[in-house]
Every structure is written in C-alpha cells, then in structure tokens.
C-alpha cells in the first residue's frame, strides 16, 4: 500500500499541475474554465468515494481498488488527446470515477491490517509515500512538458497500470466484516452520527483551502517565475512533508492534544495562503508554501485517524466513504473558487482578493473545528474504551 500510494500520487501530480499550465498558460483558456474541470473531477471522485467505502464493506477493498486503477488509467490517457473543453471534461470525469473506486477502500484496507495504536503512524507513513510521489511527479512532469503535454499525460496513466499489477499480486483480499449484506446501512450510520457528521462538514472549509496548491498557488507561481515554477513549488511542499511529517507528527502526538493540533494546523494553512498574496518574488512565495506545508502535513493523518477511531466495527469503509463528502465538496468549491477569485481579482485590480478570502475561510474553519471536536474523544479516551 505504501508503494502504490507513491505511484498513485506521483502519477496524479505528474499531470494535474500541467493541466493549468497547458490549457491556461499555453492555450489561453480562462482560469475559471480549467478550475471548473478540476472541480467537477474532484466532486465526482469524492461523491463516488462515499459509495465506494460502503461497497468495500460488502465485497472487500481489493476488487474496487483494482477497478479504480484501470478506470483512472483511461481517464488520464484521455486527457492526452483532449483538444476541447468537452473532451477534457469527459476525461476528467473518467479519472474522477477511478479515484472514487479506490479512495475509501484504500483507507479501509490500511485500517483492516493495522492495530489501532499504530494507525496514526501508518497513515503518516502512507502520507509520506504520497508526498514523495508528489515530489517526483511534478519534477518528471516539468521535464516531460518540454516534449509535450500528451507525453506527460500518457506517462501519468502508465503509473496506474504499474499500481494495478503490484496490487493484483500483493494486496490481500480482506473479507467483508459484520456489515456484510447490509447495503447502505453503514453510510446511514455515519450520516446519523452527530459527532462525525459535524466533523466531516466543517472540514469542507479546510479542503477548499488545500486544493489551492493546484489552482491559485500554481497560477501565482507561474506569474512570478513562469511555467517551470511548478516543479520547485510541488517539490518543496512534498519534500518538506517527506522529511518532516513523520517526526513532526510523533512530536505532536506526545505533546499536543489531537484537537488542538488539528485546529492549529488549519489556522496555519489559512494564514500561509493570506501571506501568499503579499509575495512579490518566487522566493517569498516558496517561504509561504513551506508554512502551508507544515499545516497540511498534520491534517491528513489526524483526520484519517479520527475517522477510523469514530467508525464502529464493520463499517469502517462506510465512514471513510462518508468522510469523502468534505473533500469532494470542499475540493470542488476550492477549484472553482480559486480560479474565479483569481480572474475577478485581476479584472477588478484587487490582487489580494483571493488570498484574503482564503485566509478568512481558514479562520472560520478553525473555529468550526474547535466546536465540532468538543465531543470527539481524545486518543487516551478512545484507547481506554477499547481495553
């Protein structure tokens, strides 16, 4: 799972930043139209992830993960030949469907094969592997874009073929648990869980912010340093995560309560985006991206661990699926809002407009998380209850 996560993230970030570079920077499309394509992909993927988790509770994660790899291969290969908005949108939808098949089942598979006390570290290691892919992917993409966007998109698609082969040979087929045969009952249980519902809905604000690395931040980097800026941009963000995420998370686990750490991390992400509006050199922007990365590297493993902690036995996949609502809605809104605010700020002569708006969203989200997490058990409570 760690190796496959590296391949998936590497393939994804090999091509996704180049969509903005190619269609906006090279072909002159409106940033809002490309943001809409990226947002629709995100919404479709996370919408299907909601049901993908429930299906994993019934049939096991492996068949869904393998199917998702093949479908995403077709989607990214389709992007290589897209020459119109409709073609790009169709390929993006296909890529989103593939992601919807493997997102929640992948997390459910990790949960199934790890002990509760090891899950935070395991999710952190998986995230480190993903960020290593996030370092490698854009660097390869930046090299391939000189050959052409089509070559880069086909290279991206090929990584999912390798992931399929590796998973087919090595991933154990974990059997459905006690929720087998209960249809969408697991999703219904997650939706009725007041604590988990609040947690999921408030996180929409965070995921609106986290997608800006693909839209507003990328556009800012291009404006300051040209199309080649995407490599250093993603390389710094992911490289810091590879080096610091695991030790930072271990330090945080020992010294800071989970709720406090999550709220502080979201505040850090919002503040860093606000500061990006003041950056007038590429170096200043990279400094803000470093601060942004410190926040994001805490949020993912913490959110995944809390989801696994709150899920009753047998419906883990359904809970991970339901949690995708926050990423789906937040990611879609973030992609559309990032492109639209950038266009609006340029049109109105207000370059700080997108950045101040994003910083405000971060503040509101942090306050919302503080409220939503009041009734979520801390690590020591949850582990004590199990023993």
Keywords:
Growth Hormone, Chain: A, disordered C terminus, mainly alpha
Task: Describe it.
It comes from Deinococcus aetherius. The chain has 387 residues and is an all-alpha fold. The protein has helices at 2-26, 31-59, 61-80, 85-112, 119-144, 149-170, 185-192, 194-210, 216-225, 230-255, 258-276, 282-310, 316-348, 353-372, 379-386. It has one domain: Growth Hormone, Chain: A. The chain contains 15 helices and no strands. Helix 2 runs antiparallel to helix 13, helix 3 packs antiparallel against helix 4 and helix 8 (194-210) runs antiparallel to helix 14.
SSE topology sketch:
Blueprint: H1 2-26, H2 31-59, H3 61-80, H4 85-112, H5 119-144, H6 149-170, H7 185-192, H8 194-210, H9 216-225, H10 230-255, H11 258-276, H12 282-310, H13 316-348, H14 353-372, H15 379-386
Helix pairs in contact: 1-5, 1-6, 2-3, 2-4, 2-13, 3-4, 3-6, 4-13, 5-6, 5-10, 5-12, 7-13, 8-13, 8-14, 10-12, 11-12, 11-14, 12-13
């Amino acid at each position: 799972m760690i190796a496959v996560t590296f391949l998936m993230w590497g393939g994804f970030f090999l091509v996704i930043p180049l969509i903005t570079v190619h269609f906006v920077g090279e072909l002159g499309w409106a940033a809002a139209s490309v943001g809409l394509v990226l947002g629709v992909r995100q919404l479709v993927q996370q919408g299907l992830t909601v049901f993908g988790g429930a299906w994993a509770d019934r049939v096991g994660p492996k068949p869904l993960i393998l199917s998702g790899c093949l479908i995403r291969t077709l989607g990214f290969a389709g992007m290589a030949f897209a020459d119109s908005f409709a073609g790009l949108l169709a390929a993006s939808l296909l890529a989103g469907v593939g992601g919807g098949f493997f997102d929640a089942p992948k997390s459910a598979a990790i949960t199934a094969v790890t002990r509760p006390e090891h899950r935070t570290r395991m999710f952190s290691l998986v995230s480190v592997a993903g960020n290593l892919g996030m370092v490698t992917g854009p660097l390869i993409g930046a090299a391939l874009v000189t050959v052409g966007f089509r070559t880069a998109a086909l290279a991206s698609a090929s990584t999912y073929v390798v992931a399929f082969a590796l998973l087919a040979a090595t991933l154990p087929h974990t059997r459905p648990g006690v929720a087998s045969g209960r249809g969408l009952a697991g999703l219904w249980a997650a939706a009725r869980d007041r604590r988990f519902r609040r947690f999921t809905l408030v996180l929409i604000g965070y995921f609106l912010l986290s997608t800006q690395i693909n839209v507003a931040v990328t556009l800012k980097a291009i404006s300051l340093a040209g199309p080649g800026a995407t490599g250093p941009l993603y390389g710094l963000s992911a490289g810091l995560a590879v080096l610091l995420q695991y030790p930072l998370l271990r330090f945080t686990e020992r010294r800071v309560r989970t709720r406090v750490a999550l709220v502080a991390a979201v505040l850090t992400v919002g503040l860093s985006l606000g500061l990006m509006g003041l950056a007038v050199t590429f170096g200043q922007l990279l400094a803000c991206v470093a601060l942004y990365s410190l926040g994001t590297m805490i949020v993912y493993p913490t959110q995944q661990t809390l989801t696994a902690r709150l899920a009753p036995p047998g419906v883990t996949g359904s809970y991970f699926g339901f949690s995708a609502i926050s990423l789906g809605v937040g990611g879609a809104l973030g992609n559309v809002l990032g492109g639209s605010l950038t266009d609006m700020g340029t049109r109105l002569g207000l370059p700080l407009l997108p950045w101040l708006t994003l910083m405000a969203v971060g503040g509101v989200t942090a306050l919302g998380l503080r409220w939503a997490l009041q009734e979520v058990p801390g690590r020591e409570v949850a582990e004590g209850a199990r023993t």
